[in-house]
Amino acid sequence: MPIRDQAQNIAHVLIEALPYIRRFRGKTMVIKYGGNAMVDPALKRSFARDVVLMKLVGMHPVVVHGGGPQIGNLLRRLGKATEFVQGMRVTDSETMDVVEMVLGGLVNKEIVNLLNRHGAGAVGLTGKDGGLIRAKKLLLQRDAPELDAPEIIDLGHVGEVESLDVSVIQMLIQGDFIPVIAPIGVCEDGLSYNINADLVAGKVAEVLGAEKLLLLTNTLGLLDEAGKLLSELDVNEAEALIRSGVIQGGMLPKVRCAVEAVQSGVKAAHILDGRLAHVLLLDLFTDEGVGTLIRQRR
Question: Which of 67, 177, 249, 269 is an S-S bond match for 258, by CB 3.0 to 4.6 Å?
């Protein structure tokens, strides 16, 4: 392609992005970072550049990360089996030690270093820092025709968010830093709990009054029964898909937290394909958008 045509294409992209930059300047964007985007070197660089660009054009990105593959890899090396129930990892005390080491140490600091190397000022946190995440034990229910009453499932050191104190996040944003949060909470008696990163990201977005909640995953977005991408849903349509069983497994917590966030005032939630390079920029700064958008009403 001639240099002049290349320059015109670049100019077109910048012009298309301009109204979105103006619209989102000063807005908080909560990003759940996980899946392939966390393990593929090229995608990791792509993610870091996207987040740094968001910061440089005046947005306030807040990153909440998972680390399931990294936790699973270390558990396998230690010879410890892993069990999942409704998309949640069963976590005994030994597994919780591994979770804290991997999420709060290895993964969190790798992301912070990656963002810093690409020109941002990032600071890593767990939910223990500054009393950020107060957790409580998560108990699941299983209903089945053969049961007289719902079965209560105890997942061990798996929690849910009881409350958030986001003052430490707000302090970092005011200081022009990017907060990077590992989803580990602490309960009143001091025990640590592993919390699903999607759920933490949703709650952080709610309390911060975020403009958008952006959830990176390993699929095109939310798919219907035929495997076709659903580009846009309102919260009622999303809840209907949950009740019908179309949404299940690891996608359940993503959609549930997206619906709750939107119902609590977040303008929109986006489920995005983290396998696509620069997916954040494509979603935020182009007319087409990608993935699945969930909002209050169509």
Answer: 269
